[in-house]
Design goal:
With about 290 residues, this protein is mainly beta. It folds into two domains: about 110 residues, Immunoglobulin-like, CATH 2.60.40.1930; about 170 residues, Glucose Permease (Domain IIA) (Distorted Sandwich). It is about 15% helix and about 45% strand. The protein contains three helices and 21 strands. Strands 10, 13, 14, 15, 16, 17, 18, 19, 20 and 21 form a ten-stranded antiparallel sheet that branches.
Length: about 290
């Protein structure tokens, strides 16, 4: 009798294990070999509705967000990531309580970043540490922290303005001979007053014309933790909370705030991490 019970229990355990294994969602990872400053698009396709799903990467946990029957995540490969082989850990839990996890290999490829030297006046340089800049940094930070469950952008972004890229993403910027920071976007040189267009569909999360350091600034929330930043504008043509579409005018190129001449600083952020805007101009197929 005991032998039969042990046998039945073993069969039951095997069936449970087989059911749990079959419940693992299909996982899509694109690209599998990102560069520093790129993003990785992950998608889970489960057999049933998930209660939650998350990814542990770089010491931080990111939540997958539902998009129809698929659960999506835009995973930033930040400027501080060292090239090499990594493993991201995916966790999921179904509504009925079944759980699982999977390790996903990600090979981060190296890239070269340039160096730029700027000469600023004492007044301009002082703006970086001026007390009044705390407010604008706080407001920009709060907007970049937004993670909206809806994803409004579809496909590749468009360049917000035509012009020469005068400063690339990730460059080490020296100000008056001192290393200041890594450039977290791209600078596009264009005549003052040139129209600036929205890079992708979204909702305006910040529009402020009073900033001392960044100048006239607009932030657009595109959903799923992705935002775009437009600074040094001479004019703002949108308001906070406004729904905008790709190609719509949001303002004009200027030199407000701390700027050496008319240009647009354009940034793309994923979960508050700066990523290369040029990556978004020709998104990989997924």
């Amino acid at each position: 009798m005991k032998a039969r019970l042990r046998s039945a229990t073993a069969v039951l355990i095997c069936l449970v294990c087989a059911t749990a294994a079959a419940a693992a969602p299909d996982v899509t990872v694109v690209p599998e070999r990102p560069r520093v400053g790129d993003v990785v698009f992950m998608a889970l396709s489960p057999e049933a509705e998930l209660l939650r799903a998350a990814c542990s990467w770089g010491g931080k946990s990111y939540r997958f967000l539902a998009s129809g029957n698929v659960y999506e995540l835009v995973l930033p490969v930040s400027l501080t990531t060292q090239p090499g082989a990594y493993r991201a850990t995916l966790y999921w839990k179904y509504i009925d309580g079944r759980m699982g996890k999977r390790m996903v290999p990600i090979q981060v490829e190296p890239r070269e970043f340039g160096v730029q030297h700027l000469r600023l006046s004492r007044r301009q340089e002082a703006c970086y540490s001026a007390p009044e800049t705390k407010r604008e940094k706080r407001l920009i930070g709060a907007a970049l922290d937004r993670v909206t469950s809806d994803r409004w952008w579809m496909g590749s972004f468009v360049m917000p303005v035509e012009g020469r890229v005068s400063t690339g993403f990730g460059m080490q910027r020296y100000i008056n001979g001192r290393l200041a920071y890594r450039h977290r976007g791209i600078d596009i040189a264009a005549p003052e007053g040139t129209p600036v267009q929205v890079a992708a569909d979204g909702v305006v999360s910040l529009a402020d014309d009073s900033f001392v350091l960044h100048g006239q600034t607009v932030l657009v929330d595109h959903g799923h933790g992705v935002s775009t930043l437009y600074i040094h504008l001479s004019e703002i043509a949108v308001t906070e909370g406004q729904t905008v579409t790709r190609g719509e005018m949001l303002g004009r190129v200027g030199a407000t705030g701390v700027a050496t001449g008319p240009h647009l600083h354009f940034g793309v952020y994923a979960y508050h991490r700066p990523v290369d805007p040029l990556f978004w101009m020709s998104l990989p197929e997924r």
